[in-house]
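Hi there. Long-time user, first ticket. I'm pasting a complex I've been working with (about 517 residues overall). I'd like to know whether the download I got is complete or cut off, because the file seemed smaller than I expected. Thanks.
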Amino acid sequence: MIPYWAVNFKYLILPHSMHNRLFYHIGRYFLMLRRIFNIPEKWGVYEKEFFHEIDNLGITSLPIVAIISLFMGAVITIQAAFGFTSAWVPLYAVGYTTRDSMILEFSPTIISLILAGKVGSNIASEIGTMRITEQIDALEIMGVNSRSFLILPKIAACILINPFLVIISMFLGIAGGWILGTLAGVVTTYQYVYGLQYQFNSFNITYALIKTVVFAFIIASVSAYHGYYTEGGALEVGRSSTRAVVYCSILILIFNFILTQLLLA
Amino acid sequence: MIELKNINKYFGDRHVTQNFSCSFDRGITNLIIGESGSGKTVLLKCIVGLVDVDSGEVLFDGKDFLKMGTKEKQNLRKEIGMLFQGGALFDSKTVEENITFPLAMFTNMSEKERNDRAQFCLERVNLKEAGQLYPSELSGGMKKRVAIARAIAPNPKYLFCDEPNSGLDPKTSILIDMLIKEITEEYQMTTIVITHDMNSVMEIGEKVIFICKNQKWWEGSNKTILNTDNKELQDFIYVSKFLKELKERSHL
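Hi, the file is complete. Here it is re-exported in full:
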């Protein structure tokens, strides 16, 4: 006879309800993705939505990305300069450190986390509100594939525009480090620029952009999932929005680790 | 014509629609009435496929909607217009864009043709000046009229209205009711209206179905409803003191 613990082995790892919920959400998420990547009813209408989303999700995020990148670059430069007190460490290492910190981690990951907050909550609350006000039902009744119409332009826009935001963030972060670093007198322009050029590996940019594209997909699709399946009223829209940001952030950190292991290790 | 055969719907243990069978004719306004929570909206959502039916048949001109594939359902839905309780207008689009949206999505009409059609539909609902306004700038009655204009823009064969006059004053309610009746006759649509407003029943109820205790309880028209001896329906109709007094006076 099979012992009880063997039959219920899976319950030893996770409680029953958590098992069900986890697989239910994963299954529903992938079923949603299958419906999203259908052939659009009319490309022209989707194209219009796509450009609208580029503006709504991408261009409007530019100011926050610019401000944060500029100051983070400056802070990394000053911290690096104060950290390198040993005579064995040349001051051009400040530029080198700022460059690699911005390219490898800050711009792709931290900016994606910030975008998960701004763009993710925007997507979840917009779609969630459409759900509770029956606008999604109205789309379905018209014969429109609502998942595809609402979510595909958002995913495409995020995948296209986020790498641009991240490249801008890299430039502004490095520029912020140079401007404020030289103004604060912690590094000279020559030392900083020499450090920026020192042992530059262009694959780091490729690595950062691959991460950004994956994170952009996570931000748009996971937030849209939480918004699309909102049930209830305004309170639930708020909860969906919060859940979207939390799950996006966690998934970004998990995939950051996986991609770093795959691409750099 | 729409036929329902033995429709059953459960939410967990709750049997919200019980063996519902009836037919809705073309060119007349078919009303489904009943108390709040009696399962009217669920039934309407079952008919259009927004809620999955547990058993039964939903026949649109003889074709079973429940046995159709996704593509077939999408094609049928292009022939459906629906007026939702809150209007369900797209917030990010102007009134004109709301109306032209289904046309842009499913027809090869040029932009000018679409705008002309939108203007025609807006004139039909007496809102010809509202094209460039956003839904947030409209009153409740105007939203309902725009929703009607959007529903009729693609010339649907079937029109569904979920409580079209809820939250409206009696005068606007009658205007909306009359508009629904007129367009039903004009375009020979199969129209189903969900309501619990007795004014609507008396104005446009050419066929009336009363739902009580989650099942079909009575079927008739606005001409026969006041003389019914069905106790539950009488309780529903004569719930107000005003109507009770009217009834008593008419008996005297």
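A couple of notes from our side: Chain A touches chain B at residues 41-42, 44-45, 129-130, 133-135, 137-138, 140-145 (CB under 8 Å). Residues 4 and 156 of chain A are 49 Å apart (CA to CA).
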